[in-house]
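The protein record passed on below.

***
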Amino acid sequence: MDTISAELRRFITDRAKDRCEYCLAPQTFALHKHEPDHIIPRQHGGETSSDNLALACFRCNRYKGPNLGSIDPDTGELVGFFHPRRHHWREHFRLGDGIIIPLTAEARVTVLILRLNDEDRAFERRALMSEGLY
């Protein structure tokens, strides 16, 4: 099992500006500290390197697990998740009233599997947005 050095953790956190790279939740207001996520999980050949690590909140990381993608609910096709090192968030998602709106197939499967719009997550997002913190 690869370990992630303190230096690499700091780099990942700084690069993400202390936000989950999937749902954009700020680490400052998280109950659990955000953690490095292997974008391509180790069991699928993903390396423990800065190019394959993203900062993820506890919920996004747990829901993603060792998955690489899922079935797009619109097309029925197998699609990979949003990839924080290759994709730009604003090209795949839009934020509206606390809801993360998917704009692409990658975004649709990411929203679905990571449960980005669960009621409690949307509520928290709206509350942070109303205070200018999201």
User: Anything to note?
Assistant: Helices lie at 6-15, 58-64, 89-92, 105-113, 119-130. The first strand starts at residue 35 and ends at 38. The radius of gyration is 14 Å.
